[in-house]
Amino acid sequence: NAGVTQTPKFRVLKTGQSMTLLCAQDMNHEYMYWYRQDPGMGLRLIHYSVGEGTTAKGEVPDGYNVSRLKKQNFLLGLESAAPSQTSVYFCASRGQGSDTQYFGPGTRLTVL
Amino acid sequence: AQSVTQLDSHVSVSEGTPVLLRCNYSSSYSPSLFWYVQHPNKGLQLLLKYTSAATLVKGINGFEAEFKKSETSFHLTKPSAHMSDAAEYFCVGPNAGGTSYGKLTFGQGTILTVHP
User: Do the beta carbons of residue A82 and residue A68 sit within 8 Å?
Assistant: First the structure.
């Protein structure tokens, strides 16, 4: 049982490049979340999904897009990366009726 | 609106001494509250959670937290620190936007350093 996995673990981009971060969970969870972590700011919610085919904006959605085509996967896209998007990105999932989120190991992204 | 505030950005203790990491919350109702731990270059791991069943909550690795409504606090404690406890700890509560989608609000984090 892998839980929540994230791909890739590390990535370096140049300003203006695009990329997609993949989150996968094998717990059949309905809810999935993307956060970014910056020093001294805790984790901030970027986007979330309450089920397959649905997504919604979180606190800091600008510059990101997401898709949930399959229940087990939640993709985070950066269409035109900016240095301000240098961060560590965490994905999490939660089951229906539970209040506990399970986190992936994170993706460290650097935008030059 | 719901928010959580961690009162210390850094806490330093000696191995074998007690640990106290402070968290205050603001809410008009009794919330669900969590403590997560993040070891260096790792993801977040749930330490414990409060969901109104009991005010004293026991978690993993000898940690516990007490929910005090009168003080709006949810401090994390451990009687005796171990070197492996060195990590960053986050106090977490429901998002101000409501609990229906399980959105969370994270405190700023407390970095715990344990000295030999």
Answer: no
**A48/B contact by beta carbon, under 8 A:** yes
User: Distance (Å, rounded) from C-alpha A12 to C-alpha A23?
Assistant: 18
Taking the Cβ of residue A61 and every Cβ of chain B, the question of whether any pair is shorter than 8 Å is answered with no
B31 touches A at CB < 8 Å: no
Query: How far is Cα B78 from Cα A102, in angstroms, rounded to an integer?
Result: 23
Q: Give the closest residue to B13 by CA, choosing from B108, B100, B107, B89.
A: B89
Report the distance separating Cα B47 and Cα B89, nearest Å: 9
Answer yes or no: do A103 and B45 touch at CB < 8 A. Answer: yes
- pLDDT tens-digit map of B18-70: 999 999 988 766 678 999 999 988 889 999 999 877 889 999 999 999 999 88
Chain B residues within 8 A of A4 when measuring between CB atoms: 43
